[in-house]
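Inverse folding, one chain.
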């Protein structure tokens, strides 16, 4: 987990550095082209730090605060946590497993599924940048390539066409040329639809058990006994007998590969 987390962190660092460079270029007036304004520490110009570095630090801290949102929107985390939530609701165990357990499981599954993508980003973008072999812009382009490819494999063409229309953009010649402004929201709504479809399928066997139990209780005239109280042990028993957690995790991982 630590390696995958560090790779995500380095991606955010690269994005922050690129954004800071662009912001610094826009903040420089034409009259001051070729010169950098310095913030001196000891009262002299020697050893001072540039305003660009200060902007980089501010933007870096801002993007780090958005790291949870980036993790949710740019990885498989969204689908996994929604499916696990549907599963708990279908079984009817209320707060069992607890939210912390479901989120923790979804987080670790996300790192497992995204490990090849993070490894590609680390090898082709982060490590060359740390060795000063490439610049910030090229590092960001290399890092966004594997991530964009992963998202496009899970995204429907219908959703991409929707956001191309909303942003008034023409469809590029190749999917790799799509901007992240289009890819990210298209990926998110595609993941939401897929997660809800999987949640519907999960509900069917447990719903059948609820209907059978309710019908039996009504035929026996036991109107005062809540059907949920009787059906819950049967649903838990069914889920344990079929090794439900293994099947759910295996299905989620296979869906992304």
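Residues assigned per position:
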């Amino acid at each position: 987990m630590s390696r995958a987390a560090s790779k995500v962190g380095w991606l955010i660092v690269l994005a922050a550095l690129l954004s800071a460079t662009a912001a610094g270029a826009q903040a420089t007036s034409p009259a001051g082209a070729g010169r950098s304004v310095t913030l001196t520490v000891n009262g002299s110009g020697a050893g001072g730090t540039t305003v660009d570095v200060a902007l980089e630090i501010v933007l870096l801290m801002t993007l780090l605060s958005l790291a949870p949102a980036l993790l949710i929107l740019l990885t498989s985390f969204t689908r996994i946590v929604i499916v696990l939530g549907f599963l708990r609701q279908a079984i009817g165990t209320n707060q069992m497993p607890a939210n912390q357990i479901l989120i923790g499981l979804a987080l670790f599954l996300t790192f497992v599924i995204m490990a090849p993508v993070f490894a590609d980003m680390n090898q082709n973008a982060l490590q060359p940048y740390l060795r000063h072999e490439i610049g910030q812009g090229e590092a960001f382009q290399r890092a966004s390539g594997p991530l964009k490819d992963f998202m496009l494999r899970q995204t429907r063409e219908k959703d991409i066409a929707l956001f191309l229309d909303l942003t008034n953009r023409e469809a590029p010649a190749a999917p790799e040329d799509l901007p992240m402004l289009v890819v990210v929201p298209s990926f998110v709504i595609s993941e939401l639809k897929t997660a809800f479809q999987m949640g519907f399928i999960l509900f069917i066997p447990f719903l059948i058990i609820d209907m059978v139990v309710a019908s039996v209780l009504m035929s026996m005239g036991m109107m005062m006994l809540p059907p949920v109280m009787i059906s819950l042990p049967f649903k838990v028993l069914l889920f344990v007998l079929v090794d439900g957690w293994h099947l759910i995790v295996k299905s989620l991982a296979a869906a992304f590969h």
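The chain has ten helices and two strands. The chain has a mean pLDDT of 76.
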